[in-house]
Amino acid sequence: MTHAQLTEIAAAAVGAAQRQLPPEIRPLARGVPVHYERLPAADVIADGFPDDILGLFTGSAHGQELAADNPAPAQILLYVDNLWDYAEDDLEVFRDEVRLTYLHELGHYLGWDEDDLTARGLD
What we know:
This protein is mainly alpha-helical. It has a single domain (3-119), classed as Zincin-like (2-Layer Sandwich). The chain is 48% helix and 11% strand. The protein has helices spanning 3-19, 26-30, 42-46, 80-86, 91-109, 114-119, and strands at residues 34-37, 55-58, 75-79. It has a 3-stranded mixed beta sheet with strand order 1-3-2. The mean pLDDT is 90.
């Protein structure tokens, strides 16, 4: 599967996940750009994340934009090659893991910590 094909499939899975969100959350979710990258950049690894990380939320959480000294725009990064490796080349597992990883990272944008994410089944 090529990177372009995996990105297209991942983008469709994210779109489907957004459509299933509660109506009050959908506009917030659609306002956070999602970037599809092959693998995490060297600076992400240098920050202590494992090289097999599936996704990452960066920027300020919703409602915290003005509280930060140097507010960065919110974004979600999905690492397509790592997701494909995690899925062991199974397309359905890939789609499901993209959905789960996206929702997990969206949860960080919404201000949920790891315990909140676990309670919602997004760990």
